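Tutorial sheet, problem 5. The two components below are modelled jointly, 941 residues in total.
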Amino acid sequence: MADYYLPPVTHVIPLTSIRRERVLPVPGTVTVRVNEKVNAAQVVAEAEPVSKHYFLDLARGLGVRENQVSKYLARHEGDRLDEGEVLAGPVGLTRRTVRAPADGRIIAISRGRLLFEARGALLELRAGFPGVVVATDGVNTVSIQTTGTLIQGVWGNGRQDYGVMRIVGESPADRFKTDQIDVNLRGAVLVAGICDDPKPLHQATELAVRGVIVGGLSSSLIPVVQRLPYPVVVLEGFGVRPINPITYSLLNSNVGREVALEAEPARPYERRRPEIIIPHSESRDMSRPDEVIQLTTGLRVRVLRSPYEGEIGTVTLILDRPSVYPSGVSAFSAKVELEGIGAVAVPVANLEILQ
Amino acid sequence: MNNVQEADTLLAVDIGSINTRANLFDVVDGRYRMLATGRASSTTGPPLFDVGEGVHVALEKLQTVTGRHLLDESEELIMPVSNEGTGVDVVVATTTAGPKVRTVLVGLMPGVSLQSVRRLAASTYLEVVTEIGLMDQLREEERIDRILAARPDLILIAGGTDGGASYSILQLVESIGIATSLLRKSKPTRIVFAGNRYLGASVIERFSEQLQVILTPNIRPSLFQEDLAPARTSIAKVIAEVRADHISGFDELERWSNGFIMPAADASGRIVRYLSELYGPDKGVLGIDLGASQTTIAVAFNGTLRVAVNSELGMGASLRGILKHGNIAKIMRWLPVDVSEYRVLDYICNKSLHPHTLPTEMDELHIEYALARQVIHTALSFARQDWPVGKNFQTTLLAPLLEPIIASGGVLGRTPHPGYAALIILDAVQPTGISTLVIDPNNLTPALGVAAGRMPVLPVQVLDSGGYASLGTVVAPVGRAKFGRRILRINLERGGAGQDIIGEINMGQLVVLPLAQGERGRLTLRPEKGIDVGFGGPGRAGALRVAGGAIGLIIDARGRPIVLPKDAERRREMHQKWLRDIGAPG
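Model answer (structure tokens):
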């Protein structure tokens, strides 16, 4: 039992079955059917989130007593109205009326008062990647499935988009610079090594790029990235963190393809992660990736902490006694054969499985 | 099955967001002892979202350590203890894990019911999204929109003393009733009403039948009386329900523990209050739980408990919260090594992405401990705003007299050298006078708190049985003096443990005198004029019995508050010196 560990799993898979749920934050209407093919930009569900409520004093507005209001009502509970339409009235010679303050609907009428709900801007939920609708609850959830490449990251700025992928820079450790961006990259999804300068991000905004994928992002840029209009996916972490060779090679082999960026921010107790989905026209049935994997020898892992932060290797042995590290910390560990470095002991807590 | 009179063996399960611990207690030589701990990674988060796996692994580790069978072939817990000595009699469970409960607070007057309801919310795992009060100058529709925008899991309503205000509170409840009828959520909103108890029926009337309305005794039964305990129990149930919406596996634990898993903050609070009654009225008892997702500060003065759970401050996923409450310089000031601000910022962000990871390099260990100091310091600053007059920040800048100071949490409980934990606490809390520093490495405090309800004798006996690690007694003189000037003369009589120590302490020194765990000595303190060591005023001398610990007897004469050199190089040298003084590697 001492060697029973369930490290976090990050998927970097060339070809797999990918199924993702799209969920409206409020109940609405699902606009697609099961087995329907959808494209990335297609709206799969929509809702009208409430923007504002109004309590309207009808008795006062009409200049009548509370018990007389019902006589002058022009509309009823549940009715939808456009802004300016008459709710109640006219009354008297001056033809006093009470009108809808906005587009919306009547929620309730009671004791001479009317509760009006103004309609907000339509909230549209998009598919995000091309695929097939495999399930829906008809209210706010749609599940879409595709076959393709799946690459998961560690942080995102909360946005989503879809575009043709291009790599900028010469290597996975190259810094993202303004001179790497030109007009040919307009509307593309850019892959860069490390980003520690806001200028190329702003330049990318001007070029209307569809997204940016980086290995490492300087944490001081988080506020800048959160304001960008396009999705940014961080693959490795914060700081000087080049894209690992396996992921870089996979991205490289997919240059020119359309990719979907789901730049989910990392939130505890939520199932969604920032990820890159590259759909393939593959008709074979593929199995979905494992989410829970027990640490065993032979597995490919990534080290999460210094001194081998970001390095990838293979577990060769799970040690049955804790190892002591230069910091003095004692921890249950695994022997990992790191590419280009050799065999090192790493705390199991500092490993994640790269599948 | 869980007959307390017959129960001898207790299993306490504590589920944190990073670690799940299973502690086994049994009677040895007529007294309860903690026998062993099984620890496993928690499985409350992705990918499992099921506490069960972590609990079972912790139990299996406990079985390996003790050689005692706790689970049968079908992985079921054996209850009660069999004739062969397998299994346990009683299970208690506590947790800090799970998403925060989105909460709207409702009260009447800012200084009365709203203040009480805020205090109640701050003492447990609620995320206050918004507040509504009689004096908020909002129109009725604005209140409705505010509730709708909050999408709350819980609306916590207080207001009106018993038999007091009714019209105003019912008016607010009316708006809340309309708002809840308009809430479009897949998960229900719960209402807890803790106001004027004569309004219970009227309050229920104003909500639809589908809505769960929990009536609980008034948290402000009279203008000068506050009673948060019953409402806290109701909120604990709501927290459990919301938690179960996101994480599975709690049902099995509830079955074992006879139906109730207590929030760890409530359970720890019980022990802190109990100790304060035991230690008497002269000093307060302080409990610090530095968790991954939150920091809990529990303090009790003469039996009066204050608990503050700060969900924005933790050493894991919520670590970035520290940057909201101060600039990076406040963290950098605690570093004994030269690292850049950028590296510390990156460290904070990466640690919040991977909260379970451990620092294996010395520089990273120091960054981790600098963050721990600042997190505790900040959480304590917030908590002290609500401490009683004379102890709070509004009336005194310095920490009041506190003894003991009990610290727990993964970062403090597993330092490579006890000196690190001692310095973190001394720097973050800056205690005054005479105190004792205690580490709770296995997070026993919440377990004992919840066990107290079922086996009252157990906590009393376990507290004395070595489950806690004493770091030692601390003497922290307070007063103004030039750096290097003599401020205190000491005489430590060690009895049979070694030679007596007579010496002088100068301002700015951090001195450790040998007094090992289990040893006791008699300490005489003669402070200079203007220097207070807690014997009733400046310059007053006295003697007391002191207990040893993993560090020994610590004389912290660095001044209160500690003033750090502005020059970064000198400051780092100072920290390195203090690390050497306390015996920890730098």
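Marking note: The first helix of chain B runs from residue 51 to 66. Full credit if you identified this.
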